[in-house]
Amino acid sequence: MTDKISFTLDGQTVTAAPGETIWQVAKRAGTVIPHLCHKDQQGYRSDGNCRACMVEIEGERVLAASCCRAPSEGMQVRTDSARAETSRKLVMELLLADMPEREVAHDAGAHFWDMAEATGIAESRFPTMDAERIPLLDDSHVAMRVNLDACIQCNLCVRACREVQVNDVIGMAGRGHDAFPVFDMADPMGDSTCVACGECVQACPTGALMEASVVDADQRGDSRDFDAEIASVCPFCGVGCQVSLKVKDGAVKKVEGINGPANEGRLCVKGRFGYDYIHHPHRLTTPLIRRADAPKGLNVDPSDPSTHFREATWEEALDAAAQGLARLRDAHGGQSVAGFGSAKCSNEEAYLFQKLIRQGFGHNNVDHCTRLCHASSVAALMENVGSGAVTATFNEIENADVAIVIGANPVENHPVAATFFKQFTRRGGKLIVMDPRGVGLRRYASHMLQFRPGADVPLLNSIMSVIVEEGLYDQAYIDRFTENWEHEKQHLAGFAPEAVADLTGIDAATVREVARVFAGAQAGMIFWGMGISQHIHGTDNSRCLISLALMTGNVGKPGAGLHPLRGQNNVQGASDAGLIPMFLPDYQSVTDDGVRSAFAGIWGDDAVSPEKGLTVTEILDAVHAGAIRGMYILGENPAMSDPDVEHARAALAGLDHLVVQDIFLTETANYADVILPAAAFYEKTGTVTNTNRQVQLGRRAVAPPGDAREDWAITVDLANRLGLGWHYAHPRDVFAEMKQGMKSLDNITWDRLEQEGAVTYPSLSPEDPGQPIVFAEGFPRAGGRARFTPASVIPPDEQPDAEYPFVLTTGRQLEHWHTGSMTRRSRVLDAVEPQANCSLHPATLRKLGVAPGGDVVLETRRGRITLMARSDRAVAPDMVFLPFAYVEAAANILTNPALDPYGKIPEFKFAAVRVSAA
Length: 918
Ligand SMILES: Nc1nc2c(c(=O)[nH]1)N[C@H]1C(S)=C(S)[C@@H](COP(=O)(O)OP(=O)(O)OC[C@H]3O[C@@H](n4cnc5c(=O)[nH]c(N)nc54)[C@H](O)[C@@H]3O)O[C@H]1N2
Ligand SMILES: Nc1nc2c(c(=O)[nH]1)N[C@H]1C(S)=C(S)[C@@H](COP(=O)(O)OP(=O)(O)OC[C@H]3O[C@@H](n4cnc5c(=O)[nH]c(N)nc54)[C@H](O)[C@@H]3O)O[C@H]1N2
Ligand SMILES: [Mo]
Description:
The chain is an alpha/beta fold and 918 residues long.
């Protein structure tokens, strides 16, 4: 089957790989055969319906559609025969008759016009379509326009929606010439269940479906009217979708997905339509210094900071920022200053930030949002696997037959990864979803375990106890690659599913079945998210997942692996780069003398302290205790994201000196003494590392507004004002230095990234695109063995009681990013989800006497908020789901700051709450 096929194409001998179509071979050979219903992007099935790509095959009576015809040995194919050309012309003429003229086209830059030209057709002899029969303009969606007079029924939008993104919103209704795309049954697009990924818009070859931003009031535009096209990486989540930015007049006009290793051309609503936050009038454009008499508090209007801040030159602001920190260092010691770095910035920026704190202040009090995120997962992975990163890319699900998704909601939070998960189920893969909420993936799940929140350890232990009881484990794998199995086995004996069903809410038969399905997999993957990590027993939760993978031998082979879905676009990279209080870059312990002396060699001094630093939440506690008096905060918004924000805000207010470097005047910046305006991601160059360990290059596409500057350059200037004598002219210089101390970057160079866009680490040679799967030959631990660490049941810190009878769980929504600083300033995203909201079960709302859309009061031991309540059957009757993006009803006024002892992560996913009608 692997044999190449030889055939002739227009008289030339060419070869095809098995499965290749004539169209693909022709393209490789330099002949682009006209095509409309065929999309040259991975994931699109050829349909062969438009007949624009017909070729002649010798000996065959009828012409063949080259996009879906595979060549056979010795076949003689002509793209240039008179018959083929005449046929393609006829098709184009017929289609042209159905389209508005190019002068008045919805999209004068549509792919269709190129193809008409390539076919040699400028006008049609045929009568135009009867306008009466065409559905009217549908402008019901904020982000997209539907103009079906340009529809050629090619069906690409249906395939985009159903087969690529697997959303099943678009279908064709009507017959023959009167068949048109419809949304759901026949809703206007804006009222349908469309999630606005825009895949259909990207696929449409004619402009029948278009970005609203490209057309004017008369529905005319030109998608190719841009000045430059720049390849970069989406700045939102850890999937790391590669994008092409179309820039016009210095602004991003439109975004398209390109073929990155993670996204294969796909995007979600934030990546495609959420880019415009960078052009929002609230952008910080000038350095700001607090007015002497301005009180610190949440009191600054981001559209007019002049009440509390005055504009300053960069010189003045950098001097003030550095002198304030240096004064504290000199008066109280370096320990009195701490830093929060950013997972929204590049690897180079993260690296420089941790270097500034370590070198400039002689200690390790530097951390970032990973602490609130996968810190517990990383703690468990480091402990038991020897490495914190994923063992396999999420795309490996292609080779799996079973997958578990637990405590993660990828349809909303990693939407492009979710498209691959959904496709996996369409191919027959078994998907086991475990979540207290009926998350979007449940529609695709073979097993949906909607269990009690906080009961992950008993649930996972009961699954593993069945695997032990029924002898379904992989003894050969366990013997060869693990340690502590006997102990784990004994421990699990106490967790028969019948014994823990009351705790988990899942009946024993279901648990047994799930255990058999997962243990029976040829290759199984485990994906997890914040539902696992954000608990006081988050490390135990992850230990269970690691044990489950190990006992079934599901690590280190295709289609198998452990994959904590990383959150921020660069949280993997920021952690790798050393924005962690116990680790220098590449997770090398600050307590290790050899490691410190290696960095002393690279940095030219022995500034690194051998003492582990404080974590995010410990730093804020230390501010309250008076031990920390100054902070440098880069691209984080703890005044919204920290658990117990009243405590965090009081800490920020109590600092003697706070420097905030952000793109907006955030809630955190409200407490700043100096605000440094930064360039946003699309305004700078740098590398980022996604959840798949793929290091990718972001390229500057537009200039930053006003005097805003790239983060790395600001940090360098501050370092030099602190006396550090740094010389970096470009992020590439920083990257070169990082490579000296980071083996993970071996074989990855800036030049390679410029050429290839992405390289996965580890990369074994200068040619190796990187290893999607690691640990086939053992683990980076003593003896090459991974470890089973048994986990016992620890209940959540704050149980519901008579006073606070509900369980509060917090998380995310598709359209908003964390604290809302970016997405609430994006026109489309804010229009789709404009109002603070929480979700309750309809029966609960009825009992409370609140109509869906009415207001409720949520109260915990820490505070209260009032906001709109949605009715949602996916939420258990005794739970409230609350997103944390809305300052006017900030979730973290309510959440419990109790910490996991290993990862030091707070229990964002469980608090006791009282709910009442407002
Ligand atoms: N749209 C959007 N996407 C994002 C982000 C965003 O802000 N907005 N943020 C990014 C970041 S940094 C991160 S870390 C990721 C997070 O991505 P996810 O991990 O998917 O995030 P969450 O919505 O916080 O929580 C996931 C799930 O945990 C479930 N859960 C709650 N309690 C429990 C429990 O006790 N056990 C289990 N097993 N599950 C429970 C919730 O019901 C929820 O469905 O998303 C990234 N992507
Ligand atoms: N209740 C609750 N709270 C949570 C969580 C939860 O599930 N529930 N999840 C936690 C998790 S997983 C995370 S990761 C944290 C996230 O917490 P944060 O990291 O504090 O949240 P973001 O809103 O992402 O903050 C990023 C900041 O970076 C700025 N920014 C964006 N781009 C740039 C840039 O290029 N340069 C600079 N200098 N700044 C930039 C943005 O304006 C924003 O202010 O929240 C945590 N808090
Ligand atoms: Mo996160």
